[in-house]
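Render this sequence as a predicted structure.
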Amino acid sequence: MTDVRLAMWSGPRNISTALMRSWENRPDTRVVDEPLYAYYLQQTGLNHPAREEVVAAGEPDWQAVVAELTAPQDGVYYQKHMTHHLIPQLPREWIPQLTNVLLIRDPHEVAASYVRSRTDIVAEDIGLVQQAELFDQLGPATPVIDAADFLRDPEGYLRWLCAFVGIEFTDAMLHWPPGPRDSDGVWAPHWYDAVLASTGFEPYRPRDVHLSGDALVAAERSRPHYERLHGLRVVL
């Protein structure tokens, strides 16, 4: 029996949803979309798009969420996680039970994309602070993948990830039909426009980013964490 519980820990406005599409296109894999989101919103009271729908549709009891995430699997269980959901009061002792990978992106690019959907922003909203904490908790063997590297060679990095968790790569991971999925969170209409229209990974394009105000402060606070993790990333 294959028992793979792959937790991909990303910040927002990354390629995390496209990666979820990729893994869901495997016949042996089921996915879960941000399972701690309802808990996060209920605990913080933050006003995110579709806040009430997210809390109503999700599971706000973190212990119930963790029990489901860590249960033995018959197959591959791909978990799309946002590291900003790891608020201080949420215990993290359960995370090493999963096979964990960190997915990072340049914080200036993240902040520029984030403020298009939600104008309020602090460094903790884009997840690099928590990714650095998670790396320290899990240890130096934890793989770090930069989204820019991945988009330059999706097949190479998908083959690497499959080898890392001990399964065969399939070409089905490179392309998928457009449109929504039953597995998408109820927030998809607010955040997933590009992914809903996609049929594969977009080629990497460098961004010309100009930030100011809170977005610039959040990006600059995140920069040292990004640079550190970037220096430890998987390079093919």
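Summary. The longest helix spans residues 213-230. The CA atoms of residues 156 and 236 lie 7 Å apart.
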